Amino acid sequence: EKIMNRDEFLEQMQDILQTDEELSFDMNLEDLDEWDSLSKMATVAFLDSKFGVKTTFADFENIKTIEDIAKKAGI
Fold first, then answer.
1. In the prediction, which pLDDT does 45 show?
2. Which pTM was predicted?
3. Is 8's pLDDT higher than 60?
4. How confident is the model at residue 57 (pLDDT cuts 50, 70, 90)?
5. What pLDDT score was predicted for residue 2?
6. What is the Cα–Cα distance from 10 to 70, expressed in whole angstroms?
7. How far is CA 55 from the centre of its chain?
8. What angle do CA 16, 22, 23 make, to 5 degrees?
9. CA dist 40 to 1, 2, 36, 37, 75, Å?
10. pLDDT of 14-53, one tens digit each?
11. Is 70 in contact with 25 (CB distance < 8 Å)?
12. What Rg do the C-alpha atoms of the chain give, in angstroms?
């Protein structure tokens, strides 16, 4: 199974956040209205299902940008 590239990762994050805003890796998640507990849960599920990476809400204390999520995913 092919690991997704960074562009595909951003597309997936756009789906998860259900935002029309163009996302970038250095974007601060707190600046997005869509970054809430639901999108965090969706992100946890995404990391688990696509990358086999287990995260907890506590991990989100250290996740400030989309790049931080990508690093968790190993992208």
1. 97
2. 0.91
3. yes
4. confident
5. 59
6. 9
7. 11
8. 60
9. 25, 25, 6, 5, 18
10. 999 999 889 999 999 999 999 999 999 999 999 999 999 9
11. yes
12. 11
Other beta carbons within 10 Å of 44: 17
Count of residues making up the chain: 75
What 3 state SS string does 11-64 have? HHHHHHHCCCCCCCCCCEHHHCCCCCHHHHHHHHHHHHHHHCCCCCHHHHHHCC
Contact 35, 22 (CB under 8 A): no
Contact by Cβ (8 Å): 43, 57:
no
Do 15 and 21 touch, CB atoms closer than 8 A?
no
Which residues does residue 65 pair with via DSSP β-bridges, in sequence order? 28
d(CA 16, CA 62): 19
What is the maximum alpha-carbon separation in the chain? Answer: 33
